[in-house]
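WARN  no MSA supplied for this record, continuing single-sequence
INFO  ligand: 8-OXO-2'-deoxyguanosine-5'-triphosphate
INFO  echoing inputs
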Amino acid sequence: MIEVAAAIIHNAEGQILIARRREGKSQAGLWEFPGGKLEDGEEVPDCLRRELMEEMSIVIHPYAAFGVNEHDYGGFKIRLIAWKAELLEGQIRLSDHDAFRWVAANELDAFAFAPADLPFVHRLLDPLQ
Ligand SMILES: Nc1nc2c([nH]c(=O)n2[C@H]2C[C@H](O)[C@@H](COP(=O)(O)OP(=O)(O)OP(=O)(O)O)O2)c(=O)[nH]1
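INFO  complex generated
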C-alpha cells in the first residue's frame, strides 16, 4: 500500500487548487489535489508543505484532516490522505504537472479526476459539507 498525501488548498477567494498529471506519470491527464508520497516517518502536514514547495513553489498551511480513501489501481493500492490547507504565499511555478486551475467547489465536477480522488470531490461538491 502506497501512502499518498493530497492537499485541498484554498485561496483568499475560497477557490480550490487542482492540478493535472502530466504525460509519463501514472494517471496522466487526470486532475488531482497536489501532494505526493509520504516518506518514512513523515507526518502528512510536513509532507504536504515539502511537496507543494517542490512541485509548485508555494507555501501552504495544512490545518485540518479532510479524509482518507483507499483505492486499488490494479497493480498497486494507494491510501490517499487529504488535508485542507491554506495558501500562504508564492506564485505557482509548475515542475511536476502540466496545468493547474483555481476553481470553485461547485465547478469540480467539470474535471476528470484520478479515481482515488472521487470521494473527496463528491464531498466538496456537497453544499451541506
Ligand atoms: N499527489 C496526488 N497523487 C494522487 C492523487 N490521486 C491519486 O490517485 N494519486 C496517485 C497518483 C500516483 O500513483 C500516486 C502519487 O504519486 P506521485 O505523483 O507523488 O509520485 P511520482 O511522482 O513517483 O509519480 P508516479 O511515478 O507514481 O507516476 O498517487 C492526488 O490527489 N494527489
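The radius of gyration is 13 Å.
INFO  checksum written, moving to next record
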